[in-house]
Design goal:
It contains two helices and five strands; from the N terminus they run αββββαβ. By secondary structure, it is α+β, with helices and mostly antiparallel strands.
Length: 116
């Protein structure tokens, strides 16, 4: 996958949205990279890798969220924000549940910045 970026002369609108994106990024990073002592469920296990980043497309004015999670086999994945509000919930079902999953990558839809 090739990513390209164009320079922009008008950064005013993007700079106003920057604090919103930074707060969301910090919240998601803290939620996925929390130390083991934060886990309140004995079935929770830490991931070997949990990365999230935001892609702001200045040309189209939209924002996408990308995440990569990797670790030991799991059958259930839930991501919560720092206030413990559920943001993502995945359950492995059927025959695949016996094996479990070890890695997942996702990319959100890219709504325009004025819709966020």
């Amino acid at each position: 996958m090739k990513h390209t970026r164009n320079k922009s002369n008008g950064m005013t609108r993007d700079m106003r949205m920057l604090p919103v994106f930074l707060v969301a990024a910090v919240a998601l990073i803290l939620g996925t990279a929390a130390p083991n002592c934060w886990a309140n469920d004995e079935n929770e296990i830490p991931f070997d890798e949990a990365s999230i980043f935001f892609e702001l497309n200045d040309t189209d004015g939209d924002l996408g969220i990308h995440a990569l999670i990797d670790g030991e086999p799991w059958k259930y994945l839930k991501i919560e924000d720092p206030r413990e509000r559920e943001m993502l919930n995945i359950r492995v079902k059927g025959r695949l549940r016996r094996q479990g999953l070890t890695e997942i990558f996702f990319e959100s839809a890219e709504p325009p910045g004025d819709e966020l």
